[in-house]
Description:
Elements: H1 3-11, H2 18-30, H3 35-48, H4 52-63, E1 79-83, H5 91-101, E2 106-109, H6 120-124, H7 136-146, E3 148-151, H8 159-170, H9 177-190, E4 195-202, H10 211-227, E5 231-238, E6 246-247, H11 249-260, H12 266-282, H13 289-301, H14 304-315, H15 320-324, E7 334-339, E8 344-349, H16 351-361, E9 377-380, E10 387-388, E11 393-399, H17 402-411, E12 416-419, E13 429-433
Parallel strand pairs: 1-4, 2-3, 4-5
Antiparallel strand pairs: 5-13, 6-9, 7-11, 8-10, 8-12, 9-11
Helix pairs in contact: 1-3, 2-4, 4-9, 5-12, 5-14, 9-10, 12-13, 16-17
Amino acid sequence: MNPSEIIKLKRNKNHLSREQIDFFIKGYLNGKVTDYQMSAFLMSVYFNGMNDEETFYLTEIMLNSGEIINLDFLNMPKIDKHSTGGVGDKISLILAPLAAVCGIAVPMISGRGLGHTGGTLDKLESIPGFNVNLPVKNFKEQIANLGVVMIGQTPELAPADKKLYALRDVTATVECMPLIISSILSKKIAEGADGIVFDVKAGSGANLPTKEESAELAKKLISVSKKFGKKALAVITDMNEPLGYNIGNWLEVEECVEVLKGKMVPDIFKLTNVLTGAMIYIGGIAKNLEDGEKIAADNLMNKKAYGKFIEIVKYQNGNVDYIKDSANLKRAKFKKEVLSSEDGFISELNASDFGYASIELGCGRKKTDDEIDYLAGIILKKKYGYEVKAGDVVCELYAESEVKLNNGMKRLEGAISFSKSKPSEKKLIIDILE
């Protein structure tokens, strides 16, 4: 076997054997397969897909490229959540401490931004000093002591996915079902979770925009999870407009802190409680999803989750004072406002356009070695269905240079639409699959 032979097979729509996939992935890890060869392979998979058997093999090989953590020493359910990626999707930062105070151990291994969607690790690293690179020993110690840990992939855990993840981000191969499934599950199974709740996004800001694609992905994630002996549940959620009001790494942390301290942001509050409730349910603490959601809502409103979030920040060497000082707004140097062009109602805030605009501002990466500007971003002042007058501020853009600010403004041209009558209400929770 040689790399070009395997690329050619997949390019020509052939099914690959376990041995062929294993050869290619291991070759990439040991340097015998180059970045350009892996890029060609990823693009071949993007266009020609993989069948269920190939997808399972790819997941298994990526999982076994590193260590698999055993958390059997924890006498409590070990459940994680994974989002397929959205704009303004900051739910993990609230959900992880919330689930922990509800009696769920949360071994959360997250990723960085992919394409136009933000990454949990980038948000956490906007807190000065926050360490997402804990070795497995510290990972186990923290979850034993706090019931929750939030890190990125270590060299020991699914190293194949770590390399592929960065390459997919810059080669336009993010929106590919077998690559999404293998990436998610190789991490989640490696971390030692008993079960996983999937937040599968559908809409303009999702990696798979149609409801049909999202439903198919949800079913496949559940199916492959069960092949590995894991409990699984999927919630299909709307991603046609950004979640919450803030987009950008520190801006999203700031909004999460506000919610944890009691501020009501309806879509964040609802989605957090549904997903956390699902974790509580499959963890066996609640008898059904509704009871799980109620337990979650009660523990979010009593602010216990805020205390747990502060514990996480402190334990992972983050600057707690920086968090507690979030009322002293930290903003990038330059600011511009986007104004309503007419009277009426906002009928669209295209999530994809807002995601790409945030990258132009400095929130994400165009190349793997790009540095992130943690204070850059967008703050929405109006959302879908809000009534506006001509000249009202719809959103504010922040960046560290006027060039980036202007590029972000250009990317938002056409992203906001208006109607004369109030648009129909959107359904945030589209479906739940067990």
